[in-house]
Amino acid sequence: MPGLISANPSQPATPSPIFVPGSREATPKSESFHGTSGHSKSPSPFNQRTGAARKMREKLLLDETSLDNPDLGPFLLKLARETFASGENPNKALDYAIRASKSFERCPVPGIELAMSLHVVAAIYTSLGRLEEAIPVLERSIEVPGNGNGSDHALAKFSGYMQMGDTYSIMGQLEQSISCYGSGLKIQMEALGELDPRVAETCRYLAEAYVQAMQFDEAEKFCKKTLEIHKQHSSPASLEEAADRRLMALICEAKGDYETALEHLVLASMVMIANGQDNEVAAIDVGIGNIYLSLCRFDEAVFAYQKALTVLKSTRGENHPSVASIFVRLADLYYRTGKLRESKSYCENALRIYTKPLPGVTSEEIASGLTEISAILEAVNEPDEALRLLQKAIKLLEGNPAHRGTIAGLEAQMGVIFYVVRRFAEARIAFEKATTKLRATGERKSAFFGIVLNQMGLACVQLYNISEATQMFEEAREILEQECGPCHLDTLGVYSNLAATYDAMGRVEDAIEILEYILKVREEKLGTANPEVDDEKKRLDQLLKEAGRSRNKKGKSLENLLGSNSRGTKKEDTKSWSGFSFKT
Asked: How confident is the model over 276-300, as pLDDT tens digits?
């Protein structure tokens, strides 16, 4: 969401939930860009299209002392916008914008004009791929002191934060991006109130960002706020409400609340039908089919998919990617019901579309489809073809920093496949690439990062690199304790793997303490007769027997347990394997 200018001059700017100086109404960003912040300016003496005027203009542009001219800043800013919008010479536009900002900085009290010029500078930097240079410019725009109309200053800060959030998002740094969006929302709510329709649009924007970051609880909170505001300001069964319900359905589905997700989709479908939006109804039917598939209501899922397929073939053509995406859904459905022949057939149909895409189809859309097909092929025991499709998807996404997190996920999936087919060295390399990208994008504290570290540790174990495996498990444990809690199954799995590596390194006491805690938690959650509990008992009894001890029936607190893990002896090569199994 650029603040005052679109970063892509070939695409029209979209309306943003902001107010413009001197007005209480929302204004599209394209209007904010081409205007002058609501203030009328005296005619510039440089607007004459005579040869003499052009020469004078060039002279002034080259003369630094001319920057003191109060009319030069607005003129340069207008010239920068026009040059950038034409798409002919973005570097020239950048030069104009930088000189405009310098001119505004020489004003006695720099105000919103300076902030606007800095927004333009940052947008041009972004369009040129110079993202790291755009960030400090936007930070400077936020720090510009306010003067005159307070709403003008609020607009400048709001736009600066939102544009900086977009820039961080393009760089793949979701955590910083969300932080900027949150700061922008706070400023907007203070200026407009919590129930203004423009606040709803920003709340939705933030909800979508949280979905992208897989923080679904936060996403649900902001989506509910959006829905609440739209209900107050829009007519019943409005298109805005339908869009909110579709987003809420996506969030509920991700959280496993399928019935609630289905309810939102049905209500959204009714609104779209009433408004004659056939393509949107078809897209919602696909979502409904996904929910039915998750609920194992396969016949209803097939009906929903086929209904959407009929509409999309007739309105978009048989080779459209949306048709291919339904083929992928049907392939998944038939795999789950054991009809592998039909599943492979639908995968082939989808691949024919993705390998010969229509003009205008984005690489992201193709990569997403290839990734979904690879998951099905992996499930039907075709790992080589699955790896080939994942590699092709990665190539489609390379070169764009915004896709680093997605590429990391694909590389992690490749690591899992390599591990399953016992190509452990390649698995470790894939996991290392994934973790490197996740660290660079600021995702080092996510649960997904912890799980990838655990998988990398398992690959290291298979390569007999126990020291590195222990480091991976310890880091994964720290992250999953923070993100999931010490009693979560993923966290317990890492505890179990860490106990096994401690045992292999000769740190028997540390391994015993971890296993005692795991057994205590599993007994409380699963009961003493559960097979997993029985396995943990056998592992613990084996270690206790080797150490000449009996089982501690009370168990130790987690705080004492984890505090003691750093006190073991480090004898990596003095302990033989004890028959431990690792938790994948």
From this structure: 889 999 999 999 999 999 999 999 9
Dihedral in degrees, nearest 10, Cα atoms 344, 347, 352, 356: -150
For residue 304, which of 317, 323, 291, 288 has the smallest C-alpha distance?
Answer: 288
Give per-residue pLDDT as tens, 388-411: 999 999 999 988 777 888 899 999
3-state helix, strand, coil in the chain (%, to 5): 70, 0, 25
pTM of the model: 0.69
108-118 burial by CB neighbour count: b if 16+ within 10 A, else e? eebbbbbbbbb
Beta-carbon neighbour count of residue 129 at 10 Å? 13
Q: What's the pLDDT band for 19 if we cut at 50, 70, 90?
A: very low
Read off φ and ψ for residue 547, nearest 5 degrees. -85, -5
**DSSP per-residue string spanning 320-343:** SHHHHHHHHHHHHHHHHTT-HHHH
Q: What is the per-residue pLDDT for 496?
A: 87
3-state secondary structure labels for all residues of 119-158: HHHHHHHHHCCCHHHHHHHHHHHHHCCCCCCHHHHHHHHH
Helix (H) or strand (E) holding 518: helix 508-526
Phi, psi torsion values for 577, nearest 5 degrees: -65, 140
Q: Tell me the mean pLDDT in the region 16-31.
A: 34
Six-digit token string for 97: 């914008």
Residues 126 and 152: beta-carbon distance below 8 Å: no
| Residue 168 structure tokens | 């961080």
Sign of the torsion formed by the C-alpha atoms of 158, 161, 163 and 165: negative
CA distances from 14 to 84, 137, 388 (A): 17, 23, 38
Q: What is the pLDDT of residue 156?
A: 84
- With tokens 């431990």, the residue in question is 580
Per-residue pLDDT tens digits for 413-451:
999 999 999 999 999 999 999 999 988 877 777 888 999
Closest residue by Cα to residue 319 from 272, 385, 366: 366
The CB-based long-range contact list for 137-144 (8 Å cut-off, 24+ gap) reads: 138/163, 138/164, 138/167, 139/164, 141/114, 141/115, 142/115, 144/110, 144/111, 144/112, 144/114, 144/115, 144/118
CA–CA dist 144, 153 (Å, integer): 9
What is the DSSP secondary-structure string of 105-117? HTSSS--HHHHHH
How confident is the model over 520-557, as pLDDT tens digits? 877 776 666 566 766 777 777 777 776 666 555 444 44
Element (H, E) at 427: helix 424-440
DSSP string for 228-259: HHHHHHS-TT-HHHHHHHHHHHHHHHHTT-HH
Q: Which of 216, 213, 243 is nearest to 227 (CA)?
A: 243
Mean pLDDT of 158-173: 91
In the three-class reduction of DSSP (H, G, I as helix; E, B as strand; rest coil), residue 15 is classed as strand
